[in-house]
Each structure stands twice: as structure tokens, then as C-alpha cells.
Amino acid sequence: MRVLIADDEERICELIKFLGNFQEEGMECLPFAKTGKEALERVEKELPELLITDIKMPVFSGLHIAKEIARKKLRTKVIIISAYSDFSYAKEGIQAGVSDYLLKPIKKKELQESIRKIKEELKEKESIEEIIEEKAEETIMHQGILREKSLSESSLEKKVMEDLLLDASYSHLVSLSKKFIDQCFEEDIGLEEVAEHCKVSASYLSTQFKKELSLGVNKYISGLRMERAKQLLAETNLSITEIASQLFYYDTKYFSKCFFEKMGMNPKDYRNSLHENRSEEDRI
């Protein structure tokens, strides 16, 4: 991830570079831009992932640069640094598509949190684009329409997106993570593995997942495993310990506790109730 810092005072640029801790975060800090005109030209030419600019710049203001980036549909994210706390400036920044609006004096924690948030957003977008591209290629191959690719790419991409986002009420990230969990919950996965698959941090995934589904990732996985446990109790002769172990619950007592929370009875009573029901049916 490349970062362009723009300010007419070099000491401010150096301060932002120091506070941003870019090198340790695995980011490349490009040479500074000293005017708004230079910043905009550099963004158009070098396409950095992030621009951090003062709102007050020679030639073009920071807001003007942000508006031009949005108008030209460039991918560069923008953080505006300003000494003005007036809400009208912040509102104008939001309308211009600015990712964040930070007030002077610049606080290290606020700047780093803003940068990390943007990194997560970019990772999520990149991950989704990769999935869409892979699914598009698979669909093309399966449908045998390689020769018509140039004519159908647009509609095909739309179809892939519709298939990928099974529930439009969920974000790309949550839809992707749900799909992965639904397919792999019988494997040894948890929050960390799901986050790694989605190419985002565990904390960011946890926050987004809980926000949209009102339960955590591990709780969602546990719910699916309990449904599978019900099936195994009903259809196999596996012991409760074996079922627990198969679903990665190595403490049988904890497994029984989770099952009770889901079903209102422990696994043994659940299995017994099924046998009783079957016996009654046989007598009838």
C-alpha cells in the first residue's frame, strides 16, 4: 500500500510520516507533494492507495483534490487534515467521498486507527474482486462460452456478483465469510481462520459480522455444529464423546453445555427422546 502525503510545510509532512508509522505497517511512503496541483497530478499518475492532505493547500485545496478523485473514479482513498472544526467542512468532505477528516493537532492514535480502517477496506475490496474474477472464469468454463467472452463479460460479472452475494442485506465481507463457514464448519476453523480466508483482520471481521448478524463468528460456527450434532445423534451410533470430538469439542462437558443452550436438553436426553418417539411410532 502506497501513501502520498501533501502539505506545503515539509515539517508537517514529516510529522504525519512519523505518526503514521507507515514502514512498520508495511506501507510505502512516497515523496511528499507541496501543492494541491502537484498532489492531484501525482495521484492521477502514480495511483497511490491513500492520500493524506491538508485541507488548505496552494493552488488546489484538499477538498478540491478529493472531489476530483471522486469525479474521475480513482481508487485513491483520502484523509483530510484540517485546523477547522466547522461541521460544514466535514460535511463537504463526506460529500466528496473523503474516508476521514482529522483535526489538528494530529493525534497519533486517531491517524493510525484511520489508516488501519482504510487498509481493511482495501483488503476487503481486493478480496471480493479476486473472488468475482475467479467465479467469472469458472462460470465461463462451465458454460463453454469462452469464444463469447468479449460479448458477455458484463452480464456474466453481474450474474456472478448476484450468486456470490446470496443475501443482499449483508456486506460483501459477511456474505463471503458466511459462505466459507457454511462449507467448512465441520473442519477445525474459528474466527482467525475465517478472517485469513477473507484476507481481513480477525477484529475487523468480528465487528462487521456481529454488527450485521447480531452474533459472533464463533457463535455462528457453534450453531451450525450443534445442528450437525443433532443429525449425528439421530442417525448414527457414535458416542457423545465421539460426536463432540468430530465437531472439535474436545471437552465433552463443554459440548453438552453448548448443546443444552441450543436445544434446551443435553445430548443424551435428546437421543433418548428420539428413541422414545420411535418406539411409540413402532407400537402404533
From TrEMBL:
Write down which residues bear the modification named 4-aspartylphosphate: D54
Enumerate the subcellular locations listed in this protein's record, separating them with semicolons. Answer: Cytoplasm
Q: Which residues form a coiled coil?
A: 108-138
Q: Which PANTHER family match?
A: HISTIDINE KINASE-RELATED, TRANSCRIPTIONAL REGULATORY PROTEIN HPTR
Name the keywords, alphabetized.
Coiled coil, Cytoplasm, DNA-binding, Phosphoprotein, Transcription, Transcription regulation, Two-component regulatory system
Question: Lineage from the top down?
Answer: Bacteria, Bacillati, Bacillota, Clostridia, Lachnospirales
* Domain Response regulatory, residue spans: 2-119
**Is Ligase given among the entry's keywords?**
no
Name of this protein: Stage 0 sporulation protein A homolog
What domain of life does the native source organism fall in?
A: Bacteria
Question: What species does this protein belong to?
Answer: Oribacterium sinus
Q: Per the database record, which ranges form the HTH araC/xylS-type domain?
A: 175-273
GO molecular function terms listed in the Swiss-Prot or TrEMBL record: DNA-binding transcription factor activity; sequence-specific DNA binding
Q: Which Pfam families match?
A: HTH_18 (PF12833), Response_reg (PF00072)
Function per UniProt: May play the central regulatory role in sporulation. It may be an element of the effector pathway responsible for the activation of sporulation genes in response to nutritional stress. Spo0A may act in concert with spo0H (a sigma factor) to control the expression of some genes that are critical to the sporulation process.
One GO cellular component term, please give it: cytoplasm
